[in-house]
TrEMBL record:
This is Orotidine 5'-phosphate decarboxylase. Homodimer. Catalyzes the decarboxylation of orotidine 5'-monophosphate (OMP) to uridine 5'-monophosphate (UMP). It holds the Pfam family OMPdecase. Substrate binds at residues 16, 38, 65-74, 120, 181, 190, 210-211. Keywords: Decarboxylase, Lyase, Pyrimidine biosynthesis. The active site is at 67 (proton donor). The keyword Lyase applies.
Length: 231
């Protein structure tokens, strides 16, 4: 992955809040300490899609985390409908048909497509309960290889699998990692976590951090500390 010009771009702040007003308030409080924001289901379904072009127009980047997965035509047309919003990243689930459809839908000027391998709230027991025969690490590696074959721009995986994923996808594709927690922060519902500094040392390109920043008394200071830890 090409070296980033601005180290703040490595931190993606998850705007996992219930209203656009709350999200805009957080962006204002964080100020220039962060440049990249994630909009997921909760905010997107509460009007957050309209926030994407506003953030992009202000010079910020947006990770639209919708984890699309459906029949190929539906995914393709869904991605095509999102291309003009100005998002930098868009997620789909790492199923071969879904990934190929997303690449077709985004065309030449749409967002970079990231494939979600296995959710960071899953461990081997959760995967087995869902009916997968492979343990998480093997399932992630298999899906990463399929993503590379499909032409996907990057992989979303936990830090625990990042080195194995890098070996499968090479250096030209991004690795984006949720479940990142500063030292001393609670893991919450994440089961495969790592600190920002450790994530950067093993070659992760972008880290996604939500509650440790958004629920902090001083979210700007926490964001600054995470960026500094990754330098």
């Amino acid at each position: 992955m090409t070296a980033l010009q601005d180290p703040r771009d490595r931190l993606i702040v998850a705007l996992d809040v219930g209203t656009v007003a709350e999200a805009e308030g957080l962006v204002d409080r964080i100020g220039d300490a962060a440049t990249f924001y994630k909009i997921g289901y909760r905010l997107a379904y509460a009007g957050g899609l309209a926030l994407v072009p506003r953030l992009a127009a202000s010079g910020r980047k947006v990770f639209l985390d919708l984890k699309l997965h459906d029949i190929g035509n539906t995914v393709e047309e869904g991605v095509r409908a999102l291309t003009d919003l100005g998002a930098t990243f868009l997620t789909v689930h790492a199923y071969p048909q879904t990934m190929r459809a997303a690449i077709r839908g985004r065309g030449a000027n749409g967002p970079k497509i990231l494939a979600v391998t296995v959710l960071t709230s899953y461990d081997d027991a959760d995967a087995a309960e869902a009916g997968y025969a492979l343990p998480v690490a093997e399932l992630v590696a298999r899906r990463a290889g399929q993503a590379a074959e499909a032409g996907i721009d990057g992989i979303v995986c936990s830090a625990a699998e990042a080195e194995a994923v890098r070996a499968r996808i090479g250096t030209d594709r991004a690795i984006v990692t949720p479940g990142i927690r500063p030292a001393g922060a609670e893991a919450g519902d994440q089961k495969r976590v790592m600190t920002p500094g450790a994530a950067r040392r093993i070659g992760i390109d972008y880290v996604v951090v939500g509650r440790p920043i958004t629920q902090a008394a001083d979210p700007r200071a926490v964001a600054q500390g995470i960026v500094a830890e990754m330098l």
